Amino acid sequence: MYSKDGEQYFIVDAHIALWDGSARNLKNVHGKQFIDCFYDYHKNLSPAEVVWPYDEYTYYGGDRLMKDLFTDGYVDHAIFQPARLADFYHNGFGQTEEAWALTQAHPDKLTYNHYFDPRDEQAGLDQLRLDAERFGLKGVKLYTADWHGDSRGYKLSDPWTYRYMEACRELGITNIHVHKGPTIRPLDRDAFDVADIDAVATDFTDLNFVVEHCGLPRLEDFCWIATQEPNVHAGLAVAMPFIHTRPRYFAQIIGELLYWVGEDKIQFSSDYALWTPKWLIEKFVDFQIPEDMTEYPQLTTDVKKKVLGLNAAAMYGIEVPPELAIKIPAEPEAEVAVGASA
Amino acid sequence: MSVPLLQADVLSAVTAALSTVRDPELDESIVDLGFVRQTSVVDGHAEVRLRLPTYFCAPNFAYLMVADAYDAVSSVPGIHTTTVLLEDHMNSAEINAGVASRAGFVGSFGPEATGELDDLRLTFQRKAHTACLERACQLLIAAGWSVDGLASAHLSDLPKSEQRSSLLRRRGDIGLSVAEDAALFVDDCGEPVPAEQVPMRLRFARAVRVSIDGNAHFCRGLLTTRYPDAVADQKPLRPGQEAI
To answer: Which of A3, A16, A191, B36 has its CA 20 to 30 A from that of B84?
Structure first.
C-alpha cells in the first residue's frame, strides 16, 4: 500500500519476473545480448540513483525481489509473467522453480503465471494441463517473438494457438498476457502487428487479453482494437518509466490510453526487474497532465487507484480492503472513445 | 573533360546521400538518429558502418535501412563500389551478405521470408503521412481553424513551415497529389475525408503520431545507452522534443 496526501493506494504489480541472465545460464550470444538489451532499457530509463550494477541485474534471487517489491516498493500483490527463452538460456530465462517456491511461501503476495508455446503442439498442450493443475493457473504469459528451433515467432491466430486458447478456456486460465517482440515468421511481416490479438479476442470473448507495453511500438493499432474489444486490456510495462525521462511523452501515452481504452482496462506494472516499483509508484501518484496539454483531461485520484491496483485486482480476484477502494460516488469520468472501458 | 572529384567532396556527398535514408518505422533520417557510425571513401570505394539501438531490432526494418543506404551511396558520382555493414545485430551476417550480393530480402533470409518488403514499407509510409497530417492540422487549428472545417482545407491553406514541407514529402512518398488545390485531409489513397469523419480520423492520427514519437524516444535513448559516443551524432528532429 502507498499513502500520499491522505489517500491510500492498493498496489498490484501485474508484470514481474525472477530471471537468470547470468553467465552460467547463457546458452549462446543471443542470451548474452538479450540480458544486455534489458540492462540498456534499465539504465536508459531509470533515475541514476536506482540503476543496479550489471552483475546484480543479471541474477538477483528471491530475497532481493521480496525486498524491492514488498519491503521498499509499496506493492501489495505481484504477478509473475515469465518468458521461457529456452533457445537462449540453459534453464530458461524465467526461473520457474524458484518463482513457484516463492509464490508458495507468500501466497497472499504473489501469483504465478506460466507460459506456453503453441509450436510445442500436442506435447505442449499436455504440459499446459499439468502446469494448470500444479500452479493453479489463472493466467499465462505469451512472448510471440520467442525463438524455437528454426522458428522466430508465432501468431495468436495460428491454428495451434487456438487449440491452446480452447484449453485455457476449459482450464479456467482466463488472463492471457501477450508480449509482442521483434521477430516473427515470416520475417517480411510487421512483427509488432497486433491484428492477431483482435482475431483471438473476438473469438474468445470469455478470456481477457492484456497487451503488455500497451502495444508499443504500435500504440495506435492497439488502441483501435482495445476500443472495440471489451476483453482487451493495456499493460503499462515499459511505458511507465517514461514518467521519469520523458514526462510530457508519458502524459500523451496515458492520455491516449485513457481515451481509447478507458480507465478500467489499464494495469500498472514495473516490469521488475527491468525497473523497480518504488519510484514508479511515487512518481505516478504525483503525476499530472501538463496544463498546456489541454487535449487530455487531468488524472483523477480514482483513475490512479484503478490503474495502480484495483483493475488488476478485479481481474485476478485479489481481495482489496474496503478502505482502499475508490470513492463512492465515483469521481466524474472524462470523455472517452465509444467502447472504451466497456 | 570531367574534373576529378576531390576526396572530401565525395565523402560529404556520401553523407548527404545517407541523410536521405530514413528509418521506415521512425520516419527519421538514419544520420540524425545516429545510426551511421562511420563513413569512409578510398579510391572510389565507399564503406559505411551502421549501428542500431538493439541487437534484436526487427530484421525487416534493419534490412531496408542497409539496402537503402547501399542504393543511396552507390548513386553518388565518384563512387564505384560500396560496402554497407550493419554491426552488432543478430542478423548482421545475413543482411550484409544479402545486400552486398543484391539478393533481395527473400534471397537474404531464405525460407524465413515469404516476400519482399514493399508492403511493409508502404504501411509505414502511410503511418508517416498520417502523423504528418496530424501535425499540419494542429498548425491550422492553432491558427483558428475548426476541426470540422479541416475537411474543406487545401494544401494552399498550409503556411510555409516544417509541418508543410514534411507533409508534402510524405504525400509524394505514397503517390498523393502535392498540388496547391489538392484537399489537405485525405485518406491513405488520397480520397478526401468527409467532414463528419474528420474528428475521429484526427483523433486516431494523433495516436499514430504519439506512437511514432514514442518509438523514436526509445530508439534514440537505447542507442546512446548502447553506444555512448552516439550522443554527439544525434540531432533532434523537431523543437519541442524532450531532451534525452
So the answer is: A191
